[in-house]
Amino acid sequence: QVQLVESGGGLVQAGGSLRLSCAASGRTFSNYYMGWFRQAPGKERDIVAAINLSGSTTYYTDSVKGRFTISRDNARNTVYLQMNSLKPEDTAVYLCAADVNTLASLEYVSLDQRLYDYWGQGTQVTVSP
């Protein structure tokens, strides 16, 4: 069993920054492909960013490229999402997730949310105009 706990959300003005953290417990964190997703009211859950096992390869959805940075600290069992230049359209519940069963190359990042096995409870990010 893997538990994921997000923190760091809140209310910020447009142009501001937030840093989300996701602490994992359970099995070996360095074997989890990790991702951040978000879900705005009335919309589907979408991937925001993903990272490979070592942290050397990352993926970002187009709308956050150049503004958000995903990283991981395997010694601390934690994945981060640094969010800069926030916009009102970034307002959503942000969730981290772990893909623990995929066997792939070192550069692989998990983009299909159907492959993620464990999810955190989410943290609210609200960006005011």
Q: What is the averaged pLDDT score?
A: 95
**What are the secondary-structure elements, in order, as H or E?**
EEEEEEEEEEE
How much strand?
over 45%
Query: Which oligomeric state applies?
Result: single chain
Rg over alpha carbons: 14 Å
Q: Describe the global form.
A: globular
The rounded distance between the terminal residues' Cα atoms is 40 Å
Separate helix tally: 0
Give the helix proportion (percent range).
under 10%
Low-confidence stretches: none
Task: Considering the chains and any ligands shown, give keywords for the structure.
129 residues; mainly beta; four-stranded antiparallel sheet; 11 strands; globular
Structural notes for this entry:
The protein contains no helices and 11 strands. Strands 2, 4, 5, 6, 9, 10 and 11 form a 7-stranded mixed beta sheet that branches. A 4-stranded antiparallel beta sheet has the order 1-3-8-7, with no helix packed on it. It is an all-beta fold and 129 residues long. It is globular, with a radius of gyration of 14 Å.
